[in-house]
Predict the structure of ATP-binding cassette domain-containing protein.
Amino acid sequence: MSNPILALDDVSKVFGRADKPVYAARSVSFALHPGRTLALVGESGSGKTTAARLIMREYSPDQGRLLFHGAPLGKADSKALKAYRSSVQMVFQDPFSSLNPTHTIRYHLERPLRLHQKGLSPAQRRAAIVELLERVKLGPNLIMDKFPHELSGGQRQRISIARALAVNPQVIVADEPTSMLDVSVRQGILNLLNDMKSELGLALLYITHDIATARYVADEIMVMYAGQIVEWGAVDRVLDDPRHPYTRLLLSAVPDPDRRFDDIRFADELGRIEEIRAQAAKAQPAVSQVGENHFFRPMPA
Ligand SMILES: Nc1ncnc2c1ncn2[C@@H]1O[C@H](COP(=O)(O)OP(=O)(O)OP(=O)(O)O)[C@@H](O)[C@H]1O
């Protein structure tokens, strides 16, 4: 298996007062590899966005390290940080608020090209915009001079992806990229992310509360609860044979005619979740972890 592009090594982030800490991330370790998608799954408040913000360097870790191609980023010089910033791009949940309503699509794509590929002539920049729009399966001539409000939610999310691609990233962090979109266009966006991963060899972190969608895009899955990774492994293993009660609970909430959420068989598990909740509220990690952490033992490609 290839070396990881990016890794979180035993990272913790704590909010709140010292006497009442909130562990948004607790000893979190994982790695992102080229051409692979890792799904980070958990309910609201589990710490998914905190993990994304740590990767985007909006938060600095209280403990642990961020590694980029094996080198700790904390000590990186400004050149290395600049390389990191263009290598790691984010696609947000809300394609409305992430695009500026007063600018055309051409502007949104031209800007990162101007900043990160300074040597391009105007004609080369135009060709690059055409290529980006074609890559996200939008007709360049139809779209380029439109404003964000003239596009559908799905089209806008494709523009967000094109904009992220404009700087030739190695990693894309997609935080709930389909949750604000119409159900009918969600699959198209997930397919596009899959294509990007395979065609460009990107490492993708797919963040979602919807564990069922992980199967469409992810190679591996990590389940996060109260700031901790409680289960991880190959996506089929985790979804077909969930071993942590919290993973089973998440899966039981997925509509399935054969499994009812209030099924008596889950009563014990719900009780155990309360136990886990109580343990997790304490300062020391107490959540049982299941599976192999591919940061420490890389899974075969
Ligand atoms: N800036 C902050 N200040 C204080 N507490 C925070 C801050 N950011 C996150 N938290 C807390 O950390 C925990 C994890 O939050 P986080 O937003 O990472 O979860 P999430 O899984 O992304 O949830 P959501 O899906 O609702 O965004 C929560 O208890 C949250 O209240």
Remarks:
- The domain at 6-281 is CATH 3.40.50.300 (Rossmann fold).
- The chain has one domain: 6-281.
- The first helix runs from residue 48 to 55.
